[in-house]
């Protein structure tokens, strides 16, 4: 396309830039003027944002998922340790937990509840594996005892600077408690772990174990009663 211009009394045809050329030049100028923002490093993102990244695309973002794993690996290890302290393949179970998380993280509708969701995956995996095994597990360790709000059972013995005698008494108590736990039927032991160690609600335990809410409450009450009966001497002391 051309336009007519006058030069020294003579008409001269001058080319007019095409629309595409004008847009190209203008966009290049703008693009060069806008500074590029470097991507945010995964370790600086919140857990919520990491989960959202993992839920984008066909597969979870590997870098974001690796950061989630780094942050929550100890949480998974702690759960499995309390549930199955004598199992030699806890590392394999932990790996399977993260495989399930990777495959199902897109189904998590509330990212703020990720930790609880992760705990249920680990607990469900343990319970599934427990059903497959014929041997009796001892799924409780009280190296990190937990105080519950309902006050039904308090396994903590507080002492700022315990004396050697107090330390020995404490060790004896936990040893007796472990033996008492080992004598409980498997369903009682598992239910106690889910309630006292994991702090799960009765409804969650019922869903995981596949029994009614009344059965869960009954098992917990009976387990606590048996433990208190066997440990009465230590509890009075």
Please, could you describe this protein's structure?
The protein has helices at residues 19-33, 47-54, 62-83, 90-104, 114-132, 164-182, 186-197, 202-209, 213-230, 232-236; strands at 2-7, 10-15. By secondary structure, it is mainly alpha-helical. The chain folds into three domains: 2-32, no CATH class; 40-137, Rna Polymerase Sigma Factor, Chain: A, CATH 1.10.1740.10; 141-237, Orthogonal Bundle (Arc Repressor Mutant, subunit A). The protein has a two-stranded antiparallel sheet. A hairpin with a 2-residue loop joins strand 1 (2-7) and strand 2. Helix 4 crosses helix 5 (114-132) and helix 8 (202-209) crosses helix 9 (213-230). The longest helix is centred in the N-terminal third of the chain and has 22 residues, at 62-83. Mean pLDDT is 74; it is low at 135-149 and 153-159.
Low-confidence stretches: 135-149, 153-159
Q: Treating each run of at least 4 consecutive H or I residues as one helix, how many helices? A: 10
Q: Which oligomeric state applies?
A: single chain
The proportion of residues in beta strands is: 5-15%
Assign the CATH superfamily of the largest domain.
RNA polymerase sigma factor, region 2, helix turn helix motif
Q: Taking strands numbered 1, 2, ... along the chain, how are they ordered across the largest sheet?
A: 1-2
User: Taking all residues together, what is the mean pLDDT?
Assistant: 74
| Element-level helix/strand string | EEHHHHHHHHHH
- What is the rounded Rg? 31 Å
- Number of domains in the coordinates? 3
């Amino acid at each position: 396309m051309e336009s007519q211009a006058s030069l020294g009394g003579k008409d001269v045809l001058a080319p007019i830039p095409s629309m595409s050329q004008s847009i190209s030049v203008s966009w290049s100028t703008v693009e060069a003027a806008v500074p590029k923002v470097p991507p945010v490093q995964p370790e600086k993102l919140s857990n919520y944002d990491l989960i959202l990244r993992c839920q984008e695309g066909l597969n979870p973002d590997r870098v974001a998922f690796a950061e989630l794993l780094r942050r929550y690996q100890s949480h998974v290890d702690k759960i499995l340790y309390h549930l199955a302290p004598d199992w030699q393949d806890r590392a394999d179970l932990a790996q399977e937990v993260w495989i399930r998380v990777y495959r199902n993280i897109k189904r998590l509708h509330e990212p703020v509840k990720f930790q609880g969701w992760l705990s249920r995956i680990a607990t469900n995996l343990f319970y599934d594996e427990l059903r497959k095994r014929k041997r009796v597990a001892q799924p409780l360790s009280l190296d990190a005892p937990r105080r519950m709000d309902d006050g039904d059972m308090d396994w903590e013995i507080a002492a700022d600077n315990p004396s050697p005698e107090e330390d020995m008494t404490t060790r004896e108590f936990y040893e007796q408690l472990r033996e008492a736990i080992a004598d409980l039927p498997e369903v009682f032991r598992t239910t106690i772990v889910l309630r006292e160690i994991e702090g799960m609600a009765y409804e969650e335990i019922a869903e995981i174990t596949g029994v009614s809410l009344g059965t869960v409450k009954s098992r917990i009450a009976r387990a606590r009663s048996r433990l208190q009966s066997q440990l009465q001497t230590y509890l009075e002391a």
